[in-house]
Amino acid sequence: MRQKKVKYATHEVLASQGVLIDIKKINLTQPKTFLEIGSGKGHFITSLAKDHPKNTYIAMEININVCYRILEKKLALNLDNLIIILGDAENLLSYLDHRSIDGLYLNFSDPWPKKKHHKRRLTAPSFMERYVKVLKDQAFIQFRTDQIDLFDSSIEYMHQYIKIEDINYQLEPSNYMTEYEIKKRELGPIYQLVGKVEHHVKENI
Ligand SMILES: C[S@@+](CC[C@H](N)C(=O)[O-])C[C@H]1O[C@@H](n2cnc3c(N)ncnc32)[C@H](O)[C@@H]1O
């Protein structure tokens, strides 16, 4: 979806406030780190970071205009434990060490309805391969959407990579919701899938 252009959202402004613009490895120092890919305007990840100051959170967003909105929230809430990456999930392995992340959130990822675009979905196999590499053993992936076709296809993609532990076709509201979730709840059900990485099982196949 096209996002409104934000006047101050330039690479220079974002970089001067600590947003990662260049592709380089992140040095993680806290024991627990959680990642959200496609964070949009950042309501979800900044709320988590505010409530859990001992954890590190990483927001990865490809669009500079919405990335700027995450930065605004980070600065307003004074969040030292939130790292913002302006970047593409395709390059995830260049930012993160293998087995360094405790949990991954995918919230309302673009549905890419046309079959020829399915490979761009953030739950597609080529992305799942990258996620499993950066996630620790027993780390979780939580995926939420209002798009039933994307949801059902994602169950198929994801079960090849993680152990799916919970599938919910009528998710109740919670304390941590994205901008999209708040809007889409007015229109219909929200679906959620939670699964766990099992490196030992994959390695034995
Ligand atoms: C439909 S929006 C949802 C935003 C937010 N998660 C929410 O629920 O409000 C999807 C977001 O994913 C971002 N995105 C799409 N592909 C991406 C990629 N390859 N890497 C990083 N972000 C991506 C888009 O720029 C957009 O902000």
Task: Sum this structure up briefly.
The protein is α/β, with parallel strands linked by helices and 205 residues long. 32% of the residues lie in helices and 22% in strands.
Give an account of the 3D structure.
- It is built from 8 helices and 7 strands.
- The protein has a single domain (32-204), classed as 3-Layer(aba) Sandwich (Rossmann fold).
- It has a 7-stranded mixed β-sheet with strand order 3-2-1-4-5-7-6, sandwiched between helices.
- With 205 residues, it is an alpha/beta fold.
- S-adenosylmethionine binds at residues 1, 37-40, 60-63, 66, 88-90, 107-110, 122, 178-181.
CATH topology category name = Rossmann fold
Taken from the alpha-carbon principal axes, the silhouette is globular
Helix content: 25-40%
Care to count the β-strands?
A: 7
Under CATH, the homologous superfamily reads Vaccinia Virus protein VP39
- The secondary-structure element order is HEHEHEHEHEHEHEH
User: Largest beta sheet: what is the strand line-up?
Assistant: 3-2-1-4-5-7-6
> What is the CATH class?
Alpha Beta
Q: From the 3D coordinates, which CATH architecture would you assign?
A: 3-Layer(aba) Sandwich
- Rounded to the nearest angstrom, the radius of gyration is 16 Å
Distinct compounds present = S-adenosylmethionine
